[in-house]
Design brief:
binds 4'-deoxy-4'-aminopyridoxal-5'-phosphate, 403 residues, 15 strands, 38% helix, Aspartate Aminotransferase, domain 2, seven-stranded mixed beta sheet
């Protein structure tokens, strides 16, 4: 039985998988030692759990366990990657490249560098599907470029970037390559060696794990990438991230990433088919919708659409039983149209008219059908009050809907 509200906001965060919660529980209760306590069994048990998780993360990425640093999430991992790597690269050059579609935890870091320091920054544009290809990155490179940051998959429109080709380009020139793979891990194939990645950020809560834990992969050979820590302290995580390890959360991340890697293909196939079902149902009942994002190179659970003549915020309010996101970031009092949709060339109206559906491991066909129905009714009820819609003379497919 369907019990609204329906959760279709899986790019924001995901429901912890019960298997992950079960794996974490003992570390909230009986196994509570400090993993840094080296003199007794309580500490050893905690440390064993942390090292098991480190191996699970490494295995999923094609890395070695000693290349994995636990952080409080992807925001911290992105900050540590960029702010940590740059001091060691300065003698080689003073130029950093990132893309216009990055998450704010990358974009704000590099923009601040460009504004407040003498680092030079180039922001690479994306195409109208939100994709940044190797040609666009190549065009931004200079002899002084020392670091390139390109996200593996976008959190708003789901577009997947050609990480391997970009990594190859960087490695051929001795440039450090960072990728924010927060939305990609467990959803698209990734292998830090084959993809020529030097630094990779991830977060557990986007893959059915707990919030507040993530990791940064830091390459240790061919070449070794050096990182300066963000915090001073007890020297945990090989000196790269001081602070008592969050053992239960780390265990959760390990379990979540192992499951995500093991079940990736099956999950992706199921999600893709549900996502396509949602798109088809919406298109069958709502006129004038456009897809935002790449038609094929896209995360399997992502559907981002603009509904002409409708404001995304108003649309969300009219469909409170379906949890989605709009293409406007409410980081300020005035909702700003998404920087990603703007970078894709969408005008403000189209960006404001967008909704992001994020399907996940626990989404059902029944929920998708319900969501499509709710969307159709909500759009129709808003368009009834739109003079621009009336003037357009357009009709919803299948005739008018009751509101
Ligand atoms: N990068 C991307 C692409 C994201 O989607 C997010 C989460 N919205 C982050 C970074 C930040 O992750 P966290 O919540 O773990 O800090």
């Amino acid at each position: 039985m369907l019990k609204p509200p329906v959760y279709l906001d899986n790019h924001s965060t995901t429901k912890p998988d019960p298997r992950v919660v079960a794996a974490m529980m003992p570390y909230f209760t009986n196994i509570y030692g400090n993993a840094a306590s080296v003199s007794h069994k309580f500490g050893w048990d905690a440390e064993e759990a942390v090292e098991k998780a480190r191996a699970q993360v490494a295995e999923a990425l094609g890395a070695e366990p000693r290349e994995v640093v636990f952080t409080a999430g992807a925001t911290e991992a992105n900050n540590l990657a960029i702010k940590g790597a740059l001091p060691f690269l300065r003698r080689k050059g003073d130029h950093v490249v990132a893309t216009a579609v990055e998450h704010k935890s990358v974009l704000d870091v590099v923009e601040r560098l460009g504004r407040e320091t003498d680092w030079k920054v180039t922001i690479v544009p994306c195409d109208d599907a939100g994709r940044v290809d190797e040609g666009a990155v190549l065009a931004a490179l200079r002899p002084e470029t020392v670091l390139v940051s390109v996200m593996a998959a976008n959190n708003e429109v789901g577009t997947i970037n050609p990480i391997r080709a970009i990594g190859e380009l960087c490695h051929g020139r001795g440039i450090v390559f960072h990728t924010d793979a927060t939305q990609a891990v467990g959803k698209v194939p990734l292998d830090v060696r084959a993809d020529h990645v030097d630094l990779l950020s991830l977060s557990a809560h986007k893959m059915y794990g707990p919030k507040g834990i993530g990791a940064l992969y830091v390459r240790r050979k061919d070449p070794q990438v050096r990182i300066k820590p963000l915090f001073d302290g007890g020297g945990h995580e090989r000196g790269l991230r001081s602070g008592t390890p969050a053992v239960p959360l780390i265990v959760g991340l390990g379990e979540a990433i192992e499951i995500a890697a093991r079940e990736r293909e099956a999950d992706a196939a199921r999600l893709r088919s549900l996502r396509d079902r949602l798109e088809a149902a919406i298109r069958a009942t709502v006129a004038d919708v456009t897809l935002n994002g790449h038609p094929t190179e896209r995360l399997p659970g992502n559907l981002n659409m603009s509904f002409a003549y409708v404001d995304g915020e108003a649309l969300m309010m009219a469909m409170r039983d379906v949890a989605v996101s709009s293409g406007a970031a409410c980081t300020s009092a005035e909702p700003e149209p998404s920087h990603v949709l703007r970078a894709m060339g969408r005008d403000d109206d189209s960006a404001r008219a967008s909704l992001r559906f994020g399907l996940g491991r626990f989404t059902t066909a029944e929920e998708v059908d319900y969501a499509a129905e709710v969307v159709a009714k909500a759009v129709a009820s808003l368009r009834v009050h739109s003079s621009a819609w009336a003037a357009s003379g357009k009709m919803e497919p299948g005739g008018p809907h009751p509101s």
